[in-house]
Amino acid sequence: MIYKLAMSVYKEFLLLKRDLGGLITLFVMPLVLIIAVTVIQDSTFKTFSDAKIPILLVDNDNGKVSKTVYDNLQQSTIFTVVTKIDNEPITESIAKEAVFKGKYQLAIIIPEKLSVDLQAKIDQNVEKITSNLGMTDTLAKAEKSAIVNQKEVKLYFDPAVQMSFKNAVMSSVDKMISQIETKSIYATFQE
Fold first, then answer.
1. What is the pLDDT of residues 38-54, one digit of tens each?
2. Rounded distance, CA 82 to CA 88, Å?
3. What is the span of the domain harbouring residue 39?
């Protein structure tokens, strides 16, 4: 039985040795295929990663929050921030129109007084926490603070943009705003 198996292997070896084309096809062609597919995928990835996406930023706040958002977007390797079109500042209506016409894929609208209202809300929350813990000055006069309305950073997307891109941008903006809030809370507690 082993003799028959050994003779079959020997016979196949002789056939491959005589058939140079078959031998090349057997070993070299898969290597060529792997290299070709790798080069194609790499060039596609480089084209995608080298291109920066222009986005519109409408800064109605001109405060600490908007500066942080702008700086983070500028440092990004993915986006190019556009704040003016034809040397004119962008308004929300212009940005919305440009995005829905497909000229830009994204517009970020930062509302007025976002930085001031965010700091006021943080101050209210910190004051409430410290008073509940009994850490406030009992002789201090209690101030009646104004109710701060919650503000939202608006995002306008091109209708043709994929949902995964929308989700990634929304989570990135939420993360930026959360980091700003966290830093402000720590700074308020340190005061």
1. 888 876 666 555 677 88
2. 11
3. 2-48
